[in-house]
Write a structure and sequence with these properties.
single chain; alpha/beta; 8-stranded mixed beta sheet; elongated
């Protein structure tokens, strides 16, 4: 009789310890909003370290800091994964002006694009030609471009609700503008900032020269949207005006840096890996709070919240803080390369790299069966105003993991203000709302919990 009573007590205790999904999500959100660490971590990254351009001292300080914080969480393992990254420095602040006539100048706000070469000593001053996109170069031809600075002035398409779609529609002029313009004899490139707002902040970002020899490369800079509007008006009135700019940026040989990785080992399927991450590097103009300090601290918080909520993962949950997303994607490629070499089985990966704004949901790069399975969890998120579950992209750093049935996902916050700060001097800590950041961390943790608990469809089977 005593044995029966003891057995019944053990069963009752076990059932009471098993939380429903609704209760588990409620506990996750509660821990994040009342006892969160993400905002504190972001404060340190942003205000004590600052901008974390890959190859810089600040990037290495961020590596040491986040490794230390992950170790303090008591994870099963924390380590650094070496990766060679490009090293580019901006140098002294750039300077530019429009000369409407000799001695009459108007200063404008510019910044060098990441990876650009410097202007000649003393700067560069010549006439300009305005275009709306790469396709305009061929139409104008060498006769109208040679010896001039090309001014790319295609704005982001404001009537698109998806600001990332608007960004994708014009970012080619930033990345490839110099490489294309030099084919027609251009001596420099000025690009309208990727920003939907009219302001005085120039927005940097990566650019490339392809296979162009170093001695044939031309300097490239971004101009603020306010000054782009003014410059366009001035050119319409006087096509013969001259533009001057000076920048001292330099490219150095690659240096060693690291991806920062921590994990909780799975209790049932330790060889199935669920990855969550963001990129630790940032541009140097601001402190990289939205891009992508927010994604890093939210990803770290996923592992902490799972531990704090009393959940024991079935699968190995791994946080990866990728290095060099901004100007090379070396960290994401290295992580995938090592995973393949080791034969690791990554079943799911989630990335946060769209800012620390209010979470709206997720996009999934998934087959139909897994997407249908994930959609069934959507009602669990609706009490937290998370309504967006759609098929689409995931994230640049986890993209190389695609294949062999891996499901990829990206957190999708409200994006309407994201490009006000993206790659600009005002991407700073005070523009991140604590509650919005914590809601994003809880939303990510909730999805990781459900993926871990119920598994994904692998072939014709589901490991639960």
């Amino acid at each position: 009789m005593k044995r029966i009573l003891l057995l019944m007590l053990m069963i009752s205790t076990s059932l009471m310890a098993q939380k429903s999904d609704e209760d588990q999500l409620k506990e996750i959100y509660k821990q994040s909003l009342l006892n969160g660490k993400s905002y504190e971590w972001l404060d340190y990254l942003s205000n004590q370290i600052g901008g974390r351009l890959s190859g810089s001292l600040n990037a290495e300080r961020a590596v040491r800091y986040t490794k230390q914080e992950l170790e303090a969480l008591g994870l099963d393992r924390v380590w650094l994964q070496p990766v060679m990254v490009p090293k580019w420095t901006r140098g002294v602040k750039e300077y530019a002006y429009v000369e409407s006539e000799p001695g009459k100048t108007t200063s404008v706000n510019i910044c060098a694009l990441g990876g650009s070469v410097a202007t000649p000593d003393g700067g560069l001053k010549t006439e300009m030609v305005e275009v709306k996109g790469l396709e305009d170069l061929k139409a104008l031809g060498e006769s109208k471009i040679k010896g001039k600075i090309v001014f790319f002035n295609r704005p982001m398409q404001a009537d698109l609700i998806s600001t990332f779609a608007a960004y994708g529609g014009c970012v080619d002029q930033r990345y490839s503008g110099a490489a294309e313009a030099v084919k027609y004899g251009a001596v420099g490139v000025i690009v309208r900032s990727m920003n939907l707002r009219l302001d005085d902040y120039p927005h940097t970002g990566s650019m490339g020269y392809g296979e162009l020899p170093v001695d044939q490369r031309i300097p490239a800079a971004a101009i603020s949207t306010n000054d782009a509007e003014m410059l366009s008006t001035m050119l319409a009135l006087d096509p013969g005006l001259k533009f001057y700019f000076s920048q001292k940026c330099r490219v150095f040989p690659d240096v060693e840096s690291y991806n920062v990785i921590g994990e909780i080992k799975g209790s049932t399927y330790p060889n199935e890996i669920i990855t969550v991450g963001g990129h630790l590097d940032s541009w140097d103009l601001g402190d990289g709070s939205h891009d992508d300090g927010a994604g890093c601290v939210q990803s770290m918080e996923v592992l902490r919240l799972l531990k704090e909520s009393g959940y024991t993962p079935k699968r190995t949950i791994r946080v990866v803080l990728f290095m060099n997303e901004e100007n090379g994607l070396r960290g994401g490629n290295k992580y995938a390369e090592v995973a393949k070499e080791k034969g690791e089985n990554h079943v799911f990966a989630l990335e946060s790299d769209a800012g620390g704004f209010t979470p709206r949901g997720f996009s999934f790069d998934s087959d139909a069966k897994n997407y249908e399975r994930i959609l069934a969890w959507k009602p669990l998120f609706e009490p937290y105003l998370i309504h967006l579950f759609e098929k689409g992209g995931s994230g640049a750093d986890i993209g190389p993991l695609k294949g062999d049935g891996t499901v990829l996902a990206g957190l999708r916050p409200d994006s309407q203000r994201y490009f006000d700060h993206h790659h600009a001097e005002n991407d700073t800590f005070e523009h991140v709302n604590k509650r919005e950041l914590e809601l994003g961390a809880a939303t990510m943790t909730s999805l990781i919990y459900l993926i871990d608990k119920y598994g994904i469809v692998q072939g014709a089977k589901i490991k639960g």
